[in-house]
Amino acid sequence: MALQNMSVVAPILALGLFLTIQCFQLPTPALLKASRSLFEKRKGDRSHWCCKKDLSPVVTQFTRKQVQRYIVSKNYTYVTDYKPCDPNDVNNTLLFCPVHKTDIVKTPMYRMVTVMLNRTETPSCKEKDLTCCKGFSLYLDNCYEPEELKTIKALAQLGLTG
Asked: pTM, whole model, 2 decimals?
């Protein structure tokens, strides 16, 4: 859709002179709406750009020393009381037998250990390797779908793109 320049000589009386008025055909509301939705859709969208090189993540293994906590348990057994021994126990020759109690004490300990870690890095695409993805066409340093490209070209013919 091209701009149609229509010169119309209109009898406008301004200080007794006839003036020539330039009239232009304005873009249709549908075209303006399409251009607004196109630019809003594209804000921050980079899905139409692809890289010529493989950008698979690279996994690197490395080691690192770190502190490891562990628990050491110790059992402490001691006599708390005495009670009469069992008379049926033939192995016992005592009258009073000790009553034992066991306490478990857990003590935190620390040591340095070497651990193996993985680092995953995704390389970035260099500007020279950028290209339009499949189904997109390059126009004025941007990638567009075929339908969007028609709209952009129509707007360019109207002089509404920068």
From this structure: 0.37
